[in-house]
Design goal:
Layout (H helix, E strand, L loop, with lengths): L4 H6 L16 E6 L4 H16 L7 E7 L5 H11 L8 H5 L2 E5 L5 H18 L5 E5 L6 H10 L11 E6 L6 H14 L5 E4 L6 H11 L13 E9 L8 H26 L8 H14 L8 H4 E7 L1 E3 L2 E3 L17 E7 L9 E7 L6 E8 L19 E7 L3 E9 L7 E9 L11 H11 L8 H23 L4 E5 L9 H7 L2
The protein binds NADPH dihydro-nicotinamide-adenine-dinucleotide phosphate.
NADPH dihydro-nicotinamide-adenine-dinucleotide phosphate (NDP) binds next to helix 2.
């Protein structure tokens, strides 16, 4: 096609790659752990919202499985309570696609019954043997459930049908268990059938990082060590551990946030442009970033890592309890709830540029963002006129609460004297009123159904990230024995004192 530059510049309409009808085939979605929090809060509301917007195939069945003794009606009632009233008139139609079978995870007899039930449901809804198995159980059960799916013959052998398995994070609790889980999954599924979800990657603003970087000319030439002073990746939470204390006290912030979301944000910020926006080329570029990360050196841990645990404090004017007083937390726990890491990507583009990754619970506000801090101008011709230095440019990619891209730059204040002040160019996602907004879970479920793995973890990256984090986790183990390595911080503050020399540059 001839490239008419004038036409291109006049384009105001979005340029889209549409989903075709043929990419959305009939299927049965089998959710293990369907009586749990994730199913009620995320999976079913996302499927219902897709259904309301014609985003599900018309021949679809959703089968919840867990130990709890529901029947179809009870399950439908529970799921109804969990969904939003919007589109209420479509609920009964949606509910007719919902089924439930109680299961005991280690019982071959129960899995055999499930196989027969799935065959019947497949016939009833004409789903053509296509299956999506969704692991929404506690992670310790993933290997067992995957094994039983295979051994009991649940995987359909109908001609031209597909079977996929969706695994929620965490993917193991260290390198060894991640490899073990993968080996079990690979007994019955190939890599292209395994969808390791990181729903962070499906947030619009996170997906947009690649569009911003690689669909524009103006940012990429500056996106390197010559112009960037440092990068900050911040995922702050205001909440404490809530109902997840049992899991969190074992995992801590490094496993809960760094092994997955934080390192994915780093890879999107640091990666090279893939030659095509297709799953394996994108994932090839990500693994190169992970491989280029400078190994964490425990002899300089004090300069590159701050770990903390929240104590009681004030959030929004209310007193909140400390981590050790939370229900289900071991009263002597040394689990970190805050981490600040300074990491380096040792390649041509990023040599010596620090990436500060910060995540913690009970911080003053919930906020997720990536900060690209540019260098100061090489020479300030205003220096002799001004009594202090002017701030360098900053590009902020906000994921939460504002879905926003903001570029800060210097302008002249109107008036007779020479005054400079920062101004912003800002773009907010909500400004695109006509765009259909997909919640992150809707996007990942849709991608699982069409078989697009671009937003999902590939096992080589999972393992590389565990390798990178292993010495950090070892350092963290020292917290258990040594005073001084786990820093207390009051709830409602931006983490321990030891992190403040960096935090004051990263949060406004
Ligand atoms: P839940 O703790 O709510 O557990 C899900 C279901 O698993 C429960 O309803 C229960 O069903 C069953 N279950 C719980 N404990 C056991 C056990 N010891 N043995 C056998 N079955 C058990 O988990 P979530 O729904 O919160 O999360 C599911 C998965 O998704 C987890 O791996 C979690 O890490 C991951 N995840 C969750 C997120 C969330 O927001 N909740 C976010 C991101 C990931 P029953 O008793 O009926 O068998």
């Amino acid at each position: 096609m001839e490239n008419n530059k004038n036409d291109t510049q006049a384009t105001k309409e979005p340029v889209c790659a549409e989903l075709t009808d043929s990419s959305l085939t009939p299927c049965t979605i089998v959710i293990f752990g369907a009586s749990g929090d994730l199913t009620a809060r995320k999976i079913i509301p996302a499927l219902f919202h897709l259904f309301c917007n014609n985003g599900l195939p018309s021949q679809v069945a959703i089968v919840g499985c867990a130990r709890t003794a529901f029947d179809d009606q009870k399950f439908r009632g529970k799921m109804h309570e969990a969904t939003q009233p919007e589109c209420a008139q479509k609920w009964d139609e949606f509910a007719s696609h919902l089924h439930y079978r109680s299961i005991t995870y280690d019982s071959m007899e129960k899995f055999t019954e499930l196989r027969i039930a799935l065959q019947e449901i497949d016939r009833q809804h004409q789903t053509g043997g296509n299956q999506l198995f969704y692991m929404a159980t506690p992670p310790t059960l993933y290997p067992l459930v995957a094994d039983m799916i295979g051994k009991a013959g649940l995987i359909s052998d109908q001609n031209n049908s597909w079977s996929r398995i969706v695994v929620e994070k965490p993917f193991g609790s260290d390198l060894k268990t991640a490899k073990e889980l993968d080996a079990t999954l690979h007994n019955y599924f190939t890599e292209h059938q395994i969808f390791r979800i990181d729903h962070y990657l499906a947030k619009e603003t996170v997906q947009n990082i690649l569009m911003l970087r690689f669909a524009n000319t103006i940012f990429e030439p500056l996106w390197n060590r010559n112009y960037i002073e440092y990068v900050g990746i911040i995922a702050a939470e205001k909440l404490g551990v809530e109902h997840r204390a049992g899991y969190y006290d074992q995992a801590g912030v490094l496993r809960d946030m760094f092994q997955n979301h934080m390192l994915q944000l780093l890879s999107l910020t640091a990666m090279e442009a893939p030659s095509l926006f297709v799953a394996d080329r994108v994932r090839d570029e990500k693994i190169k970033v992970f491989r280029s990360q400078k190994p964490f050196d425990r002899s300089t841990a004090g300069e590159n890592l701050v770990l903390g645990q929240y104590q009681s404090g004030m959030i929004d004017g209310d007193k909140v309890i400390g981590y050790l007083d939370e229900p289900d937390v071991n009263e002597a726990s040394r689990t970190p709830t805050f981490a600040m890491m300074r990491v380096f990507v040792d390649n041509w583009r990023w040599r010596h540029v620090p990436f500060y990754m910060v995540s913690g619970k009970r911080l003053p506000r919930k906020e997720t963002k990536i900060v690209i801090q540019f260098k100061e101008v090489p020479h300030s011709m205003f220096a002799h006129l001004l009594d202090k230095r002017i701030d360098a440019n900053r590009l902020t990619l906000s994921v939460y609460p504002n879905e926003e891209i903001k570029l800060t730059f210097q302008t002249k204040t109107p008036g007779p004297s020479i005054c400079l002040e920062p101004a912003n160019l800002a773009f907010q996602y909500q400004q695109q009123e006509n765009a259909p907004l997909l919640d992150a879970y809707e996007k990942v479920l849709l991608d699982c159904m069409v078989g697009d793995q671009t937003l999902f973890w590939r096992q080589d990256s999972v393992e590389q990230c565990w390798k990178f984090l292993t010495p950090v986790l070892d350092e963290c183990k020292i917290c258990e024995g040594e005073a001084g390595t786990l820093h207390p911080y009051a709830a409602g503050t931006w983490g321990p004192e030891a992190a403040q020399k960096w935090m004051r540059f990263l949060v406004d």
